[in-house]
Amino acid sequence: MNNFTFHNPVRVYFGDDKLQELPDLVKEFGSKVLLVYGKSSIKRMGLYDKVVDLLQSNNIDIVELSGIDPNPRIESVREGGELCKKHDIDLVLAVGGGSVIDAAKGIASAALYDGDPWDFYSYKVQSEGALPIGTILTLSATGSEMNRGSVVTNLKTKQKHGWGSPYTYPKFSILDPRNTFTVNQHQTGCGIVDSLTHVYEFYFSKNDNYLNNRICEAIMKTVIHYGPQAIDNPENYEARANLMFGSTLALNGLTGFSNTWDGFNHTTEHVLSAYYDIAHADGLAILGPHWMNYILDESNVQKFKEFAINVWEVEDRGTDMEIAKRGIQAVFDFYQSIHMPTQLSNVNIDDKEFDEIASYATRYGESVGRFKELSKDDVLQILINAK
Hints:
six-stranded parallel β-sheet; 2 domains; two-stranded antiparallel sheet; Rossmann fold
């Protein structure tokens, strides 16, 4: 096991009716919040009214920023930062899924920065502070409720970058599975794929270890077991609860405490969705199994065999390569069973921008990915295979 430092300061309040703790949590930091949310879903489900009533009845002032996009835009971060400065906001409260929470992290940092917040996401500067952040999760997917990461899109420059700092960990996150009951089939599927991909990118590691692998496998098996149940019965509390905390654990540092992050899937998908504005997990569902097929060889077949048997319960018969390939096929089959795309043509992407996408995916060096380093030509071939 490699040396590591593990720290996660986020307080998680998990379960039914934990929302009632919101006023006391907010008052630890002040009495004026910027309420950040998406377009209409939290109003349709009644959560918006509950949050506003709780805050107002406890003399907490609210400034609102709505309309956060599924791939949050830098324009929203800029607007939110200015609202924080104008209204002397004490805490940024994100109510929604990962996109809303990601935007809130950028906003909280922009509130204490005099320049353009895109400077953070283009890696020109590091944040020297941020307003406190609280979250109320409504979508099990990104794990942003318990990590410091934030991904924001700049459509003008066709860039989608991830960034975070020690200051962008939420101070608290309220996770009530009932707040995910109204999530539709596609968004539930997106959350399943995003959670699994987060784990893949630590599970497939050159320097893996036994404990890390078993933690990763437990999370993946839980998501695979409960995901279809949540799709078939959206108000199945046990399924939604396991998906919710499974997605949180997938990217709160627990799965990667000693392993390296591979990075191919998220790095390449961020380029895809910056160019085409597709759902993040649609891109991950397409890239993931094609990446597995492409990198599988004799040097890593044992890892893929382990994945096939321990995660997908593939029968241990035949050669190692045959078992590994059946495991990868299980990924394709599972994604199709939950109605997620597995080809770029499924989301109306053709090969016109493939060369440019492959170039940008490898922009930080000659390759992308750590489990198996992939050149621009490798990335291009994976895109062609996924066409």
